[in-house]
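Appendix B, Record 12. Input sequence as logged:
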Amino acid sequence: MARKFNAGYYFSEGFHSIFTHGFMSFAAVCMIVACLLIMGSFSLLAVNLNHTLGDLEKENEFLAYIDDSCSEEEARALQSQIEAVPNVSQVTFVSREEALNEFLQGREHNDLLDSMPATVLRDRYRIHVDNIEQMEQTTKLVEQVPGVAKVNAAIAIAQGFVLVRNIATGVALVLIGILAVFTVWYIVCRAGILSSYVLPSPGRVFQSFCKMLQSGELFRDLRISFLRVGKGFVIAFILAFAFGMLRAMIPASAGYYEYLVQFFKNVPPLSMIPLLILWCGIGETTKTVIIVLASFFPMYLNIVKGFTGCDRKLLEVGTMFGYTERQKFFRIMLPYAMADILVGMRIGLGYSWRAIIGAEMVAASTGLGHMILFAQQMSRTDKVIVGIFTIGIAGYLTDRIFGLLISIFLKGAGENGWN
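Logged structural output:
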């Protein structure tokens, strides 16, 4: 007996299949379009702000109007005094005739002269600054120069424009890189170049991510890994600082332990896992020791570099003032080495994340590393990718936070070649 064709049944089943399997892919496409719209919005905002500044209010320029009582020769003589102001890189004299021509340029009706600002009919200097963040202080110094009647800086607009422009540029660059990766990923999955078992679609990964957030599984493993990293990192820093301080205070002591440091520096911490499991089991001690071994050496080397690189002339000055060795260490050597210490801590934090993930894959029953390994054993490639993204984002955020603390505590002097 022939089966009766049911159009409504096939339509509902087809719609359900499309909705179930294609919704997340559609969501990924919508995210890409939304990112492109955000990029366009930032670009338009930057362009609009750039136009509002006008020709005479550039992002790193301001105008200094000359007093009406000054002749053109006297006004030109002020240039050397303005050039001597800190942060001023270029000074250009603009006479009132040139300013008037600039104002009337492109305007068809001379009746605009009635609404023309009075400052247009003044001699002025167009002043270019090196650092826009110090523009407010620079304008105050220029105002104190005899003969300067008024300063027009548009500081808030200029700084706001530069801030938005920098944010828009940074966001655009980040989004372009992310969109490129996700676009290639989506195309590969859509074209069927790789099977969904090997490389699941972005929609499927996002769906698994949402489920793991709802169940609390992701937060639980992330919290455990954070606690392990923090504990091992603190212990490693204390040991590195103690040995670095010992070497700085008593240089001869390095001969007793330096060869051991150089030996273990070349031993990968993950190669110690089998031995540590035999000694300590799969408890927290094993993970802590692995983190200490991974993060100790970059911190120790940077701390030693900071202490031993201290300017000898500063130490000689401390000796002339009667400083003891302890006072020279805490008042001269430690502040001098602070940038290297913080950079070493930042590098060591990254090594801690690398080590803990490897340790949790072998010697743990919880944590992000264990989550990834367990997902691989259960053939859940989507969860593996979620774990990888979580690790990368967590490590990146902690690194950026640490970099922010460096810039705050050292007031921008802690870059030390580290961007």
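The mean pLDDT is 74.
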